[in-house]
């Protein structure tokens, strides 16, 4: 009950009351000096007393006017001592700007079954009803943008219709633009051009969950109408990411973080689904999280953890999935009871399909290597001679394999596999007879004979599941490998396979010619090539697409549209708020309309890279349903009144109570003197 | 309960005579008016001596009662010779006996009766004197007893006008004393006075042990009971205020009360119920109950109300 005052020192008042009131009653009992009166018989009097005492144990004090007055006096003084304070909403002035927040957090259902936006609208309409005669007002709806729903008018009907038109969005909330718009509109208001005019009333209907509220400023008397209950609970997914494992591109790692904006610690089960199909995660490391309330202080957390047997917080989950195709991963929590905000209960992330790889083999002719490349099931593996390579200087291949050939031209960015040759410009060098300190290219390369395998990194993705113990090569180059480079395969006489990662290129150097070895005849050879391709090419481009925030604008390059259909005339966007047919213009970028609601959107026909778009809140500010007490404005000092933290005026009751107590004292004095004279 | 209109709550009682608690018990004016009355009884009560009342007994009077067959030894003067002439058989004429009437006046002299203005005891003394006077002048056998915690005083049987001064003197000497033990007092009264007669009990009937245990000795049976309950106006409309300690005049019992409107209301309701229960008890046993306030002049009570209720005629 907002009208009920809060008592700033109620504990002291209660203690004083517990001492003083019984003392007064005891004094009254002690004070009673009864006059003795003789009666014929007390027979009927005793019976009458007994009859009354059945229902009234304090019959002796009944109808004692003086005591009653003294008790009232005492209670009034005690109440005044407790310093009751209440906040009240001042009536609107002559010029009022009504700002209504319609961001995601205003959809919280904590207003007796209504959303906060509905409550804000109701209060705003009440304000319109209480406008003074001749007063004007305007309505601005805001989220991360501001929309002037109704310019200044004195017509209450227009104002109410404008308030009714405001729709709920899932967008974040930033009041800065709204204040700027309000300032601009006020400056255009002719009423404000008069001299000595009062600054406008700015009424902000919001729960105070705003981005950068301290940066916002407005000229006017800001009144913050706090909407929402501090006892509301909300569990939200505040972070979700999924990415392919850099070293295992077919493996997708999903990471999510949840937050509890309620009042009690909770265990929250979570559910994962792929393309709408729920998957069993009960065997995962954790299929539920345990969340402390975000509003807890550090001391509360420590107190909780100090309790014996208390469960520790665990606010994040991560899963690993094998996913070789495009998919939409959805994570949701199942604790929907007492959860006032539904939009943040789940989040989606789109995992794109594996990329089509392109591969170039530069060789003078190597039967085994060519067969192995063809077995990779790559759409277009190209094989070329070194001369052709030098002539064409290709740059658009994901991986280039050089077989016993050191090219003159090498793209700056790329992935390369070298057989029997060591590239220039890498930290891994060819060992020469001039010694390790000799400049590159000087001296003769040291060639090792009859090299067997000492060991290899069995858990590295490139060599995973390969049996290389029987690999043998007749000749191999001796390599100088610095410590920060990774030796994958160690021969008996030196490193045989080295992974050298430069900032813009990755080199996989095989120190021998496969034709000089028995490797092509072993199954591990094509497997090696397959896994090397996965590692070098696929891993870099398999990151998931970032999810979008509500209200974010998506621009699609024209080239992507042409990839979908060269003669594309329209695109259908399907999402949580229905289907929209969007005509495609002949020139310029194609911009999708603003997606206000969270959920999954899809394009038809599917535009490459934009087949599916996930819109999530993933915003701790919006998901935090605890209304802020702080007024969302840094008001310039030249304004007259700022209002308090709750956006209301503060009213001290104690001196009113003292005044009433004085009146009661006068009545008591009158009754007392009248009794004396009687 | 018969409530005399002048004492109805809310009405101003009629102006009392100048100090009703002083002056003689009977003045000549009242005595002259009382001379015209006689004590009546609804029962045919047997007396001890020849008197002026018809008795159930057969005897000598002018009132014919019945015939019976003549038996040897009967007084020949009562043979109906006319019937003998017609029927040739001897029948004896029987006449109703005329006897005196015993009148018992039981006066409550407990301390509780010495209360109120006009004083209850004085009021009851005057009523008792008036009734005794009526009884004596009509040659009835009058007995007056004072009762409190026992039978404290008894005049014995008196008859004739010349006993009036003795009766009045006896009443004047009675003083309120002791608590009410009506059961014991009435028991002793009934033992001492076995003759049938009219019994008038004058009391406030505030008996803590209960009025039933005493009244049962004088209600029904040989007595034609008239229970006259006298209460003071202060008992009907308590004018108490504030926080009081009420002291019972009989046993010094103390009751602490804070006078409030609900308490007064409850007291009145209890008083009403108490009087009603007394009336029911007396009526159920064939007696007559009469309630009066001492604000009512005693001659009005005697000359009007007691006549209306059949005690006097």
Automatic annotation (TrEMBL), chain A:
- Provide the transmembrane region boundaries: 12-30, 65-82, 653-672
- Domain (VWFA): residue spans on this chain: 93-283
Q: Which UniProt keywords apply?
A: Membrane, Transmembrane, Transmembrane helix
**Superkingdom of the source?**
Bacteria
SUPFAM superfamilies, per this entry?
A: vWA-like
Instruction: Kindly give the Pfam families that the UniProt entry links to this protein.
Output: BatA, VWA_2
Instruction: Report the leader peptide range.
Output: none
What is this protein's record name?
BatA and WFA domain-containing protein
Q: What is the lineage of its organism?
A: Bacteria, Pseudomonadati, Planctomycetota, Phycisphaerae, Tepidisphaerales
From TrEMBL, chain B:
DUF58 domain boundaries: 66-268
List where Low complexity composition bias occurs: 1-10
Positions the record marks as coiled coil are none
A Pfam family of the record is DUF58
Mind telling me which InterPro entries this protein's record contains? DUF58, vWFA_dom_sf
Q: Which residues form the signal peptide?
A: none
**Region named Disordered:** 1-25
Q: What is this protein called?
A: DUF58 domain-containing protein
* UniProt lineage: Bacteria, Pseudomonadati, Planctomycetota, Phycisphaerae, Tepidisphaerales
